Amino acid sequence: MTNPEGFDYAGIVQVLETPFLKLSSEPTKIEVQCDYPGSECGHMTTPCIPEQRAFLGFDLLYNHVHAWCGTGVGKAEVENWIHSLDAIKKKTADAEWTFYCGHGSAGKRETLSNMKGYLRDLLLTD
Questions:
Q1: Which residues contact 80 (CB under 8 A, 6 or more apart)?
Q2: pTM confidence score
Q3: Are 58 and 44 in contact (CB under 8 A)?
């Protein structure tokens, strides 16, 4: 069904040719990672702005909110999720970062550890 006044996905959304976005008015590059293994969902993309020490975790990060671990999120996906959090922690280890969560408020480094602990506890109750 066509919606002439709706969002034109085919005309606007495109595959990136590089692993970053660059706004014409800014010198800063926004790194884009989209090769995460299945976790909270089958496909995940996260932007990261190293110069601003900002990581946008979207649905990989929840802060004081119950994480989606329902249909389609089994033990293998939760383990993938934990591995992704470990990789993010390693990538952002050199300075104080802000982690913007898909659900809940932004946080500092402990946001990663808290999310990983939450997922580990979930695996133990399985």
A1: 36, 37, 38, 39
A2: 0.82
A3: yes
